[in-house]
Amino acid sequence: MKYPFVIFDWDGTLVDSEARIITSMQAAAKDYGWEPALTDEAVRNIIGLALPEAIRHLCQGIDDDGVEAIRNGYTHQFLEQSNLDMPLFNGVGDGLQRLKEAGCVLAVATGKSRRGLDRVMPEVGLGALFAHTRCADETLSKPDPLMLRELLDVTGFDVRQAVMVGDTEYDLGMAKNAGMDRLAVTYGAHHPDRLQAYQPVFVADRFEQLVDWLLRD
């Protein structure tokens, strides 16, 4: 196999959570009283960042109390109020199982909070496939490379043995900053042109393509 250690982003790479993220953030900002209303495209653009960084990008000039209020409101909307489904993208379940059976060590590096990831992972039944997970509130937000360096430290893999898989420039930028190879998927939040700027080693339009490429001799 090309890489014994494969690290995945969560939202937009494994799970189709875009609609739930967008509506939850818009509701949280509206409840706080932020104007103008957040557009779908604006929220889509920050998917992958840690919540405080995402809110500061969306709400320019907001103070720390406002960030915390919208953050709490978003968490409540996303975990408690929203009834929008978050299905796995086609091929994810079987594909991850193939990688694990082939001997790959799998991990998640996500902009989600630990509370958020721990709540949603059982819903999609993927938890047993991942040896390690790292969340944005435990480290620094993407595109800072600390999250990946910490995963390398805990597993003992060299950076040359690992690859980061993501759908946003924040995922690929984090990997580039860590000196790690990166693999882009085009079905997520950011346009393929934005991903190409980070020189991914492979670009997949479907998850099955990604798995086939990783397992190719």
TrEMBL record:
Family matches, as SUPFAM superfamilies: HAD-like (SSF56784)
GO BP terms, alphabetized: DNA repair
UniProt keywords, alphabetically: Hydrolase
Cellular compartments per GO CC: cytosol
Transmembrane spans: none
GO molecular function terms listed in the Swiss-Prot or TrEMBL record: phosphoglycolate phosphatase activity
NCBIfam families: HAD-SF-IA-v1
PANTHER family: HYDROLASE-RELATED, PHOSPHOGLYCOLATE PHOSPHATASE
Protein name as annotated: HAD family hydrolase
Organism expressing this protein natively: Oceanospirillum linum
